[in-house]
From TrEMBL:
A GO-annotated cellular component: cytosol
Reaction(s) catalysed by this chain's protein: a secondary alcohol + NAD(+) = a ketone + NADH + H(+); a primary alcohol + NAD(+) = an aldehyde + NADH + H(+)
Source organism: Dioscorea cayennensis subsp. rotundata
Subunit structure: Homodimer.
Name of the protein in its database record: 8-hydroxygeraniol oxidoreductase-like isoform X1
Top-rank taxon: Eukaryota
Domain Alcohol dehydrogenase-like C-terminal: 168-302
Length: 348
């Protein structure tokens, strides 16, 4: 889902809270993180980068430009503003509650609300020419995917690539690989419908694992790359069994696999042999290695210039009143992202 908000929108709710016990991941009340685009209402003392009325997107991560990591040029993992996974503010408190019960954040910026107070390092200014639904896609999934070949793996022109999972993140990874000049981009997804959009973003070949007659995905990928495997593979599924296939699908000696998909389980089965004897590299990534302040302007400019068919990613639009339908829509095979329009008219 993504959530866009216009400056003049008047919403009648203040907090939207979900109990996501049923997902089996988090066992507390949590204030949702959502792909989002916002308008600055006011800025605090000392903030010079933004002014009232600016269009911004909150980012998963921040960038201080000064810490050991930010100044290394090698990673986007800022040490001064770490991503909070505890659900709490840096002072280990939460400022939110409902009916007397404490609310936890989801990641650092909990975005699913009418107003949010946020550290300026966690927002990125966007060109107001960018349609709001497109801007909201950039606040997480598409950027994360795009960054994997661009910033995390820094692939070379002519590289061969496999992208596992063709959702919002995988589509971004396809677009990133295409922009970096990959010669072959193999997309893998269990859902046939996902392939049309992926082709529009630069995919050259498609594999549906259900149609391999018992062959492994990595063998199918090797067959498509002269028996050797791809230079780079990107996991955008979060499915543990895919991780090993993604590693096995790469070229021995130099193959690199980047994982962003987040499994539900804290530990997953893993075959180290493919790394050790195959002399391959496995990397994790958050936000695709993209630095919000230094790197996002270039990606935003590409989107303003309509270099990608981002409209194809917003497969459904619904009004806020119909938000419950979004949870059903997101499971449909033809759905990539559901855009919740704050001012939209309810279908019912
Ligand atoms: N690390 C980060 O910074 C970061 C940021 C955003 C999202 N994520 C994670 O990335 C993953 C993908 O996010 P998304 O929004 O694209 O999700 P999505 O649900 O839209 O896409 C996942 C795709 O994977 C496909 N898939 C599922 N199982 C598969 C399998 N066994 N083989 C092949 N394809 C399979 C699905 O059909 C779907 O098209 C999630 O785990 C999400 O939590 C991580
Ligand atoms: Zn830093």
């Amino acid at each position: 889902m993504c959530l866009s908000k216009t400056q003049n929108a008047k919403m009648e709710f203040f907090l939207v809270v979900f109990e996501i016990k049923e997902l089996g991941v988090l066992y507390y009340w949590v204030f949702f993180w959502c792909y989002l685009c916002r308008v600055v209402e006011s800025v605090g003392e000392g903030v010079e980068e933004l002014k009232d009325g600016d269009t911004v997107i909150p980012a998963l991560i921040a960038e201080c430009k000064e810490c050991l990591n930010c100044s290394s040029g090698r990673t986007n993992k800022c040490l001064k503003f770490p991503v909070s996974l505890s659900g709490l503010m840096p002072d280990q408190t939460s400022r939110m509650s409902v009916k007397g019960q404490m609310l936890y954040h989801m990641f650092t910026c909990s975005t699913f609300c009418e107003f949010m107070v946020v550290n300026v390092n966690f927002v990125v200014k966007v060109d107001p020419k960018l349609p709001l639904p497109h801007a909201s896609l950039l606040s997480c999934g598409f950027s994360t995917g795009f960054g994997m070949p661009w910033k995390e793996a820094k692939i070379e022109k002519g590289s061969t690539v496999a992208v596992f999972g063709l959702g919002g993140v995988g589509t971004g990874a396809i677009a990133g690989a295409h922009c970096m000049g990959a010669s072959k981009i193999i997309g893998v997804d269990l859902i046939q419908n996902k392939k049309q959009t992926a082709y529009a973003f630069g995919m050259t070949d498609f594999i549906n694992p259900n149609e391999l007659d018992g062959r492994s995905i990595s063998d199918a990928i090797k067959d498509m790359t002269g028996g050797l495997g791809v230079n780079y593979s990107f996991d955008c599924t979060g499915v543990p069994s895919v991780f090993n296939e993604a590693i096995e699908a790469t070229l021995e000696g130099t193959g690199v696999t980047v994982i962003v998909g987040t499994p539900k389980e804290p530990t997953v089965p893993f075959s180290p042999g493919a790394l050790i004897h195959g002399v391959r590299t496995l990397k994790g990534s958050i936000f695709g290695g993209i630095k919000p302040q230094s790197d996002m302007p270039a990606l935003i400019a590409k989107c303003v210039n309509k270099e990608f068919q981002l409209d194809r990613m917003v497969t459904h639009k619904i009004a806020l009143d119909d938000i419950n339908d979004a949870f059903q829509l997101i499971k449909q095979p033809d759905c990539l992202k559901v855009c919740i329009e704050i001012n939209g008219k309810s279908a019912s």
